[in-house]
Amino acid sequence: MWKKAIPNVLYTVGIFVCIISGYQYGIEGHNYVFLAGAVLLIGIFVYLKIKILKDIKDTLKKP
């Protein structure tokens, strides 16, 4: 289970970093291509995070 918890934490950190950098460089810096990349990465991280959380939930349900 720890092998799945560590990527979960890294996905959370990745989402946070993408939000901060997307705002700073994309919106404040008027670089909308960078903002689009940050939004795409956030989407990928959220998808992977949901997938791993479902897997952890199924692992905990099994006796």
Automatic annotation (TrEMBL):
Keywords: Membrane, Transmembrane, Transmembrane helix
Keyword Transmembrane helix annotated: yes
Pfam assignment, any one: DUF6358
Domain of life: Bacteria
Membrane-spanning intervals of the chain: 9-26, 32-50
InterPro entries per the UniProt record, alphabetical: DUF6358
Protein name as annotated: Uncharacterized protein
